[in-house]
Design goal:
This protein is of the alpha+beta class and about 270 residues long. Helices cover about 50% and strands about 30% of the residues. The chain has 7 helices and 10 strands. It has helices at about 1-20, 30-35, 95-135, 145-165, 180-185, 185-205, 230-245; strands spanning about 45-50, 55-60, 70-80, 80-90, 165-175, 210-215, 220-225, 245-250, 250-255, 255-265. The strands form 3 sheets. The protein has a 4-stranded antiparallel β-sheet with strand order 2-1-4-3. It has a 4-stranded antiparallel β-sheet with strand order 6-7-5-10, sandwiched between helices. Strands 8-9 form a two-stranded antiparallel sheet. Strand 1 (about 45-50) and strand 2 form a beta hairpin. It is rod-shaped. The two termini are about 90 Å apart.
Length: about 270
């Protein structure tokens, strides 16, 4: 703003200096011509011409621009002698409002950029870490816990029943004729069969039972907080009965079986 005012003042002072050079004695009385030389300012600007004694010769614009305002002065010369002065002033309120709006918008943009660069990458990283940890401990096809998580759960269960009298049953289940399904109908059908088998097994389990996939067509179940061996026997019979009905795979009815082995641990 100061640079713009300085440039404007220099242009107008040259015009007034040329007028003073032509009429050294009377230039300050040619008010109409002086006003014509001055650029017509807007409502927020004023230009004042003073003689060498500091008296107002001509004025264009408002008398009092108020606060905040900026003023630039240049001298009017006649043959190298200072014969007057030009004051160019402008009110800075519009600039102040514009700066305030720019500040608010830039602050909002800075906050948004900070959130984007600081929070979102961390959130995405956390999601990636959580996903990696899930894949490390779960089967990607059935989303069941894998062998590693089963071993950890089994060890913790053994430690818990070691401090309180309780029975624990480990059921190991293997599907019959699963290899034939893969060989005849393909691996896609085999994957679909595993998903249907898992859904049926989940319907037979209690909330406290722990089901895991060991790999291929092998599964394991940890059963606690139930009387043994009755509890595991009933569960095994319920699982076999649930898995016996046929499965629809690629337009074919497939019948498989299941073999279950039991291991019981009782702490008295």
């Amino acid at each position: 703003m100061e640079s713009a005012l300085t440039a404007e003042a220099k242009v107008n002072s040259r015009r007034l200096s040329s007028l003073a050079a032509r009429n050294p004695e009377t230039w300050s009385f040619e008010t109409l011509r002086i006003v014509e030389f001055l650029q017509s300012p807007d409502g927020s600007e004023s230009q004042v011409v003073l003689d060498k004694n500091g008296m107002v010769v001509a004025q264009v614009g408002q008398d009092d621009l108020g606060w905040p305002s900026q003023t630039v002065s240049t001298q009017i010369h006649d043959s190298g002698q200072v014969v007057g002065q030009l004051l160019v002033s402008t009110n800075l309120t519009p600039l102040l409002w514009t700066s305030t709006v720019v500040l608010l918008l830039s602050s909002c943009a800075a906050i948004a950029i900070f959130f984007f660069l600081r929070v979102l990458p961390l959130k995405f990283l956390q999601l990636a870490v959580d996903r990696a940890m899930f894949l490390a401990s779960h089967d990607p096809l059935t989303t069941l816990p894998n062998r590693s998580l089963l071993n950890d759960r089994l060890q913790r269960s053994l430690l818990e029943i070691d401090t309180a009298p309780e029975s624990l049953a480990l059921l190991c289940l293997d599907l019959d004729h699963f290899k034939e399904v893969n060989d005849i109908l393909g691996h896609a059908a085999g994957d679909e069969l595993l998903e249907q088998v898992v859904n049926r097994m989940k319907c037979c389990l209690r909330q406290d039972d722990f089901l895991a996939r060991l790999g291929g067509d092998e599964f394991a179940i940890i059963q606690r907080k139930v009387a043994q061996p009755e509890g595991s026997t009933v569960l095994a019979e319920r699982l076999i009965s649930s898995l016996e009905p046929s499965y629809e795979l690629c337009g074919n009815d497939v019948v498989i079986g299941a073999s279950i082995g039991l291991s019981l641990i009782h702490i008295s």
